[in-house]
Amino acid sequence: MRVITEAIETLIGDFIRDRGLVLWFDPEQHYGSIVRGLNSGQDRVLAFDGSFYKLRLEAEPFLRGFDAPKLLVYLPIAWEDAKDPLAEMLAMGVDLRPGVSGSRNTRLAVVARKALKGRVADARLEDLDRQIEQGGLTLAELEELVVGDGAFSLPTALAVLFGTALIEEAALDFLAHPERDAELVARNGMADWSQALGALYGLSAEAGASPVALRKLLARQALTCELMETLGADVPEALQRLVSAADSQVARRGAELSRGWRNRRDLAASYPAVSAEVATSLHLDSIDFSDAVLE
Fold first, then answer.
1. Is 44 or 72 the better-scoring residue by pLDDT?
2. Which CA distances in Å does 161 have to 107, 154, 156, 168, 181?
3. Which burial class, exposed, middle or buried, applies to 31 when counting CB atoms under 10 A from its CB (0-12, 13-18, 19+)?
4. Dihedral, CA atoms, 155, 159, 162, 166, nearest 10 degrees?
5. Contact between 1 and 147 (Cβ < 8 Å)
6. 39 falls in which pLDDT band (50, 70, 90)?
7. How far apart are CA 34 and CA 257, in angstroms?
8. pLDDT at 141
9. DSSP E strands, 82-181
10. What is the DSSP-derived secondary structure letter of residue 66?
11. What is the C-alpha separation between 39 and 47, in angstroms, rounded?
12. Residues 137-150: what's their mean pLDDT?
């Protein structure tokens, strides 16, 4: 699936249809692969390669006459660097760029959030800006969020119970609302729920585990994954022995679950007490953290 790619292609196509001349600024160069596939059909694409003189010369035939040209100009540079040499073209057309207000904002995180809304859990979408800016997520990796989450969908009975088919949203509900435990057991959903959490978060619950035991296991996994992510390479040896290793994708999901739980106003009230329990279970007060790690 190319949900984000299709969303940006539709956005660009709509602006070309309505405004004719579109100058698309992509200083982070997230969309180069998309532009290479756009130069087809009735629309024409020009790409800036370092020379404003060359670009203006190539665009000149399309700018003559009274009708607005159906032309996309892709600029993998900042708007500030082009606003003077391309002032005439900017006056004639419309510019799309990261950070501008309204629908012209093509910041990757903004486009991705809109495209993935309802397909991927909100907890995974809240932190996209930071992950993208730190080089943690590319357009291709964001597209994989849909494919990856598609493999982890809840059975209908559990989706009805939690009010969502997304396991990550259901996991947040499960962590914060133990009052649903009786219904979960009554629906004979524990086996499926334990399997779903195991697939997404790497939990290894014993057969027949109670909702209470499963919730403690999930909370410990989520909070520990976020702690390990925060510490990075500075994980104390004593903590390494306490924490089971998980692959990077599982660890990232656990950390995102922890952040979503703590930052959601409708869920956060249940977080402090459980966090204290997990800290006690990990014996964090007996581990010698360096000053740099504590900061």
1. 72
2. 36, 10, 9, 14, 10
3. buried
4. 90
5. yes
6. low
7. 31
8. 76
9. 94-96
10. S
11. 10
12. 68
